[in-house]
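Consider the following assembly input.
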Amino acid sequence: MATTKFDANTTALEVVENLNVNLENKVVFITGGTSGIGVETARALATTKAHVFITARDITKGKEVVEELKKTTGNAQIDVLELDLTSLKSVEQCVQQFRTFQLPIHILICNAGIMAVPYSKTVDGFESQFGVNHLSHFYLVKSFLPELELGAPSRVVMVSSVLNKFQGINWEDIQWEQNYDKWLAYGQSKTANILFALQMNELYKSKGISSFALNPGAIMTNLQNVLSKEEQQSMGYFKDDGSLADFFKSVQQGAATSVYAALDPQLVHSKEIYLENCQVSNVVNDNKTEFVGRATHAADLNEAKKLWILSENLLENCRKS
Ligand SMILES: NC(=O)c1ccc[n+]([C@@H]2O[C@H](COP(=O)([O-])OP(=O)(O)OC[C@H]3O[C@@H](n4cnc5c(N)ncnc54)[C@H](OP(=O)(O)O)[C@@H]3O)[C@@H](O)[C@H]2O)c1
């Protein structure tokens, strides 16, 4: 696919304006719309006239964001649904709540996430980054297959990270019960996002559902609050004068690749599923110090199939217990 006119500096709204897509009567569903990239993704997509759903684990916070988005975009069709990805029951309830609207889904963006958190388990007993970032999204997307098929041609967009390079699927200890490393566990969960998009495409592209995964870039959001100032400093987040390092994007720039993945009509013809800086990226690069592309383990269809089966089995075991 030819490169686009967009780059790392493009904002989400600029993508919408340039692609000039009208999504009247279309439905966009975004997980984690209460902070950071998710809010700006929702804002940009709301300007297309789509009916936008965001999710919130704190519904009061979610309602405040919806009111602000309605004011700034002039779109009255913005709704919030409760969703806590640490609980599969909450995923089920969110799907049920959405079904009361009797709508298809045209664009489903799995954006919510946590990063480098201390070890903990979800309600259902999964390591929290694997559970929140991957398994609950796996369950949500699979539950929404009827809505995505109704909305076809439709898209699923997984917000991953360049930190997929840190770790492939840790098959020997997926739940990190021995030697938990918060960064490796994050890396595994973000690799899982990409492998999920790969296998989704294999299984559902022929039914009109295209799937993509992306690296939004580095953005200073609430996601980083889990890191101490010292840790942020040691990772080069700040210049000597205390201002933010040049590699950071603004939140509006950080949301741009999600919006591009959701909107560009040419993308459905792409064989590549991975995007960065509002471009398709076919870079497979295992060098962890080069913040571009995805690792070999995140481009491996066999790994994608294996993870899909494992995820289905984990959900099945939860249903039985
Ligand atoms: N920022 C970066 O530099 C960066 C880089 C690469 C990838 N990403 C990815 O980008 C995505 C968005 O991150 P962000 O930077 O915008 O972070 P953020 O500002 O912390 O936003 C994360 C969103 O996810 C929600 N969330 C967190 N835990 C949840 C749970 N258990 N159930 C449901 N929702 C939950 C948050 O809700 P609350 O408002 O309730 O907290 C919030 O809406 C993540 O998937 C992240 O991995 C970010």
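The longest strand covers residues 209-215. Ask yourself how this observation constrains the way the partners meet.
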